[in-house]
Amino acid sequence: MPENAPDNDPNETKEHTRKFFLKERIEDKITAAGSSHVGLKRSRNEDHFVIMKRSRSSEILDSNLPSIELQNGRDEAYALVVADGIGGAELGDVASKLALETAIEASEMATSWLMKFRDFDAQRVQDRVDAYIERIQEKFDDFGLDHPSANKMGTTLTCAYIVPPHAIIVQIGDSRAYLFRDGELKQLTRDHTVQQLLLEQGIPDERAKKFSNVLLNSLGTSRNNVESEISNVELMPGDRLVICSDGLSDMVDDETIGEILRNHALDDALQKLIQAALDGGGRDNITVILADLTRQKTQSIE
């Protein structure tokens, strides 16, 4: 090498070398499954559930932006919803089905979904949830006008909307959402029942228990002032979300639910929870959705 030749810049050499290799990225992955059982005492299943996934991808085909800006991406969002029908006979079955079908239809017509955490502005989330609830309630109002005998028809609705690793929990009624983390089970939702109201007022559990099935908030015909209770949680690797009807939570205590989640993988845990509710008496329909969050490394071109 000539004496006056400049030395190669180590940083420039390193940057040049990187172009020939893949880089690692960290991605959060959701795995979800659900199951529903009529139970041992009911002739019809008035519960319905749905697990939805929406994907959005972008691909940069041309640009004069610096290479650091050229990031192709794929966003995913998940909706996990349980609806427990009210009204007896066929009415509860119709109510929960109508609520979920309307929600799915509305999601297909929505101008956009929340697909990134930066979209999780509290007022924006509340406005979107209110719009969905209003659309569902309109369907019930129309159904009630066409079917006067369905004036007592209604449904609970509990939803987890997940943009990994963040989840928004929406609660109407007494179905529940739980978080299982580090071997411990935590209830994320508050029951909208007279029992819960009495407990919060200091009434002993043995006296409040008789009002456990008296709902203060639900969707349905002849409903006014339906209110959704919204909370959020940031999920961690190894976390498991549970969305369930009271056919599980009334039959199986939290300790047993936690033990099953602790000792079984997702699909086995799902069936074990259903069986535990049946073993506990199976007095109601039983519906459970489980969702696991895992964190994995993926590779992409620098």
Any overview of this molecule?
There is one protein chain. The chain is α+β, with helices and mostly antiparallel strands and 302 residues long. It has one domain (24-58, 72-301): Phosphatase 2c, domain 1. It is 30% helix and 32% strand. The protein has eight helices and twelve strands. It has helices at 10-18, 91-109, 122-146, 194-200, 205-208, 246-249, 254-263, 266-279; strands at 22-37, 47-58, 73-86, 154-155, 157-163, 166-172, 176-181, 184-187, 219-220, 229-234, 240-244, 286-301. Strands 2, 3, 4, 5, 6, 9 and 10 form a seven-stranded antiparallel sheet that branches. Strands 1-12-11-7-8 form a five-stranded antiparallel sheet.
Which labels suit this protein?
single chain, 302 residues, alpha+beta, Phosphatase 2c, domain 1, 12 strands
The helix-and-strand class reads alpha+beta
* First-last Cα distance: 32 Å
Name the overall outline. globular
Write down the CATH topology.
Phosphatase 2c, domain 1
Give a quick rundown of the structure.
With 302 residues, the protein is α+β, with helices and mostly antiparallel strands.
